[in-house]
Predict the structure.
Amino acid sequence: MAVPVYHLRIRDSMMRVFLILLWTTNLVQRNVPQAARVQVFPPVNFTLTVCALAQVLLHWKPNPNQEQKNYTIRYDVKILSPVPEEYDTRKTHSIRTAVLHNGFSAHIRTLLHHNDLEMRSDWVKEKILPPPGAPETSVTNLSCVTRITISNTVSLHCTWLPGQGAPEDTKYFLFYRYEMYTEECQDYIKDKWNRNTECRFSVTHIDPEEVDNLIVIHINGSSKYAAIKPFQQLFNQNAIEKVNVPRNVTVFLEQNDLLATWEKPISPFRKECFEYEFYLFNLKSGNKQILKIFSTSFRLRIDVTNRYSIQIRANHHICCTRGFWSDWSETIYVGENKLENPMAWILAVLCVSTCCTFLLVAIVCKINHVWSKLFPPIPAPSNKFRDPFPNDYERARTCTSKTETEFGSFAEDLYCSTLDDSVF
């Protein structure tokens, strides 16, 4: 009986698949039996040691029972707290930077590599306990700012708030660590309870040319009434840098265009590492613009019949982590309608306002007769002194009356006499 052709093709295909599976199985079995017979042991003598502020040394040794022939040994390290992290290494030690005021814990295990196979041991665990201290006695709201000085050194200024549970007699002390150098603050500013709440370093060991290095800030304290819990925080040196103001800003008009040029801030970084904000304010219309600039020159078409004020500030751009924006540069004015003396205008407005106010008050007082109520007329003083010559005064009055009487009688007699003569 003849076998169909397609049946033969199916049989050939199945044979090929079977041979491939057999070859793969033999290849794996040549490696697996050896690997299956190897036991993977965890590391021994795993320790955690605080070797500097916010710095932990992880150290271990290979297990002496571990078979190493034809195998590659690596170690899987897992940081559990304060920040989860996992990595592997061939070394038997590792240094990590982390805040330690809440403790530190890590696991480690052995990784055994043979060809493409990886075998793992059990985990070995170790931890560092948090330092002692009463709850809510550590500082809060810690913030720090660095500046690059004209002498190419770095200053550091930190502020914080006392913990809500800290007694009034608490004394806080700040330390900073940069790489392997540690320094304690000597210049503090105090609050009304005489507690340190600010610290200033005019010069530090921070390298202004380094990029994104960590600055460790450690603050502990003491009190007669409670154990003060320490506090640590890590800062990227470029992220907390207060960038300096752009230098030599020049602004002028060229026909209908405004042209501005300036120099990069004081910094070891090249000029391409900065970005700028250009603030343009129209004093006539009140419109304002803030433009992003990535060079040290700028041209803009404006209405030259208006008056403008201009300021510039800077920040990091591409060479490192962005920091804090610099302060604005001094205001520069361009255009017409110049205010010759702004202070004179201010004084004039104040004088006019004052005069108007007094005039309004006077009118109101006049209408409501306030002046007569506030300033009534003064009465004539009474005569409290006796006349030193009362008799002479009465005698004079008597004489005068008598004389007047006699003179009147004489006149009457003269008139009557004249009348009689005329009649008779």
About this structure: Residues 285 and 306 are 8 Å apart (CA to CA). The helical segments are 5-36, 342-367, 370-374, 390-423.
